[in-house]
Amino acid sequence: MTDTQHRAFIRHGATSWRDYFTFNTDHKVIGVQYLVTSFAFFLFGGVLAELIRAELAQPGTQFVSGSQYNQLFTIHGTVMIFLWIIPGFAGLANYVIPLMIGANDMAFPKLNAFAFWLLIPGAALLLLSFAVGGAESGWTAYAPLSLQTPVGQTIWAISLQFIGFSTIFGALNFLVTIFNMRAPGMTLMRMPLFAWSMVATSIIIILGTPVLSGALAMLAIERILHTGFYAPSAGGDPLMWQNLFWFYSHPAVYIMILPGFGLISEVLPVFSRKPIFGYKLIALSSMAIAIFGFLVWAHHMFTSGMDPLLRVPFMITSMIIAVPTGVKIFSWLATIWGGKLRFTTSNIFALAFISMFVIGGLSGIFLASVPIDIHVQDTYFVVAHLHYVLFGGSVMAMYAGLYYWYPKITGRLMSERLGKLHFWMTFIGFNITFMPLHVVGLEGMPRRVADYAPEFGRLNLVATLGSFLLAASTLPFLYNAIGSLVRGKAAGPNPWRALGLEWTVSSPPPIHNFPAPPVVTRDPYGYGERVADYPLPAPSAPGGN
Amino acid sequence: MSENVTVRGQSEPVGRRLDNRKLGMWIFLATEVMLFSSLIGAFLQAKAHSPATANDALNIPVAAINTFVLIVSSTAVVMALSSIEDGNKTGLRNFLILTLLLGATFLSIQIIEFAHLLREGFTPSGSLFAGAFYTVTGFHGFHVFIGLLILLWLIPQAIKGRLTSAEHMRVEVFGLYWHFVDVVWIVLFTIIYLL
Lengths: 545, 195
Prior knowledge:
The complex is a heterodimer of chains A (545) and B (195).
Chain A: E1 10-11, E2 23-24, H1 27-56, H2 66-100, H3 109-132, H4 145-148, H5 152-180, H6 193-225, H7 238-272, H8 279-292, H9 308-320, H10 322-336, H11 345-368, H12 370-376, H13 380-410, H14 416-442, H15 457-472, H16 474-487, E3 519-520
Parallel strand pairs in A: 1-2
Helix pairs in contact in A: 1-2, 1-3, 1-15, 2-3, 2-5, 2-7, 2-13, 3-5, 5-6, 6-7, 6-8, 7-8, 7-10, 7-11, 7-13, 8-10, 11-13, 11-14, 13-14, 14-15, 14-16
Chain B: E1 6-7, H1 20-48, H2 60-85, H3 89-119, H4 128-159, H5 169-194
């Protein structure tokens, strides 16, 4: 890079733990900063979730008031989406994307650091809104309810502007990095699929997030200056909020899952010792999802009073978007089919991702259907669906990625025994928590209410007990992740015998990644093709295709 | 099929099509297009729900003059860029300063106009149209303000001669931003004042 005239407060690379608390322009430091920060918010959001589940363990209200309950699920949803899943994946991608494509850093290192540090005031304001109280209209903040809540709602809207800017600058950086910084020979069709998924994710962020910024800005302006955009009493239109919000927030669900898709496509071939099946289809289906994702938003609004005729096209597009996702699912199944599977913790999280995501995906197709959606709108069926895709999908994928790249990031191996314990507690706890919610949802239990009818009591108690197991499951992970920093066995550059470029450098990688730009002659998925041995043999013949 | 070869020590130029900064600015402008789309959509919605006389309070001649000022400032940026491409550092400096003055003129006229409108009772909470008007023009004005800040960062570099015919990407990238802000205003002028 030409930017070597760093000012005093800008650092590059980490030589001690203190460097992780600085404005550091090394993508690897920033990746760790994102991961640690977002995981802390995952734990915080988890505590809120446990409070919600504790309240719901029995009918009636025991611990919190209705207003407090509303704040709990509002902040829980906001934190998990904007401070855990989105920045968590951004952290993983920050760490590995430059390594995977053979670059020395991101295209804009300072912007990269700036994007991370924007999260901090955003998160602080979000916590402030929680402390002040008033952000209690759900993470969807539907008007006119979000116009009538106390002042915390305004702070909430402003906090999301910071986080949105952070996300936008990150996505911009990924796009320029992936388009311009690839190593010689790495054509688009030789890129790792994780990089492809980050291209698709970043395009969605670039085109979607500014619309949320605009909608939130108008929400804040309306709350402060009483302009009336969303207020029917002033001639405004509350459906405009829903349209703008979902124009971002439906694509946003792909922001939260596409990196997981990419990550799974990295993990499965390595632990199946087989080439990825359908490379081009997986890559291009991500792009198809990025495009179609913008054409489905009104399926969240079937019961909002929108024009009934418009429901049909949105139902059709919502079902069509399942096709590129199905293409991926079957490509992954074909990848592991007949492979020599190694059941590492990373791989079992990846396999669990497939099954759990399919459940969430199928309930999504149910919900896309107008008659069913009208029946289950705002019930726990929706809650079950979204947690199967966001926890069963995104979080499982995140764990698969963390176990996969932890040795690269730290230079140490995690304990597989603790990893398996973590996996089973997570998997069982997750299913006990969320599977019953499908049932109570179909029976009509409304979401976002602190109390419920007595007949739902038994299954809710089951869900609450499951959620305690789910919460406990993070303990072996934390113990493992922190303890392995000291006690873990040295990983070496390539513990999984993987073929990606990130595994050709030491663990952790040197500050400038590659001593010289690597030259790439094919995609990194040639497992089982006479190259299963590590270290890689010298080239015997020039690469085909 | 051969293996995944990652030979070290061979270096060849990375196949770049666009400079990073330029590509980055184009992508950033895509985000800006989406931001202003949401705001303009909201404005059109508000306008549709307002009486046809809602924009009578606005002063079209003043806005037209302001539009002219901003278009001239875009021309000044073009001249600044073409000056430095020819290695003319004085031209660069002068045209950047002209851009700054014109941009500041635009912003000043807008602020005076806002103050005038507010005194006349055309307030953000007064009507849906007024609220949308201040929001969308305010966002645009904020973008002009950011552009002026960038100019205040660029002009000292131009005066010190740091920008050369070989390395002046900053001017080019700033130009993209400034032209975008200009184009947004032309759209806003049309839909707010003329339609």
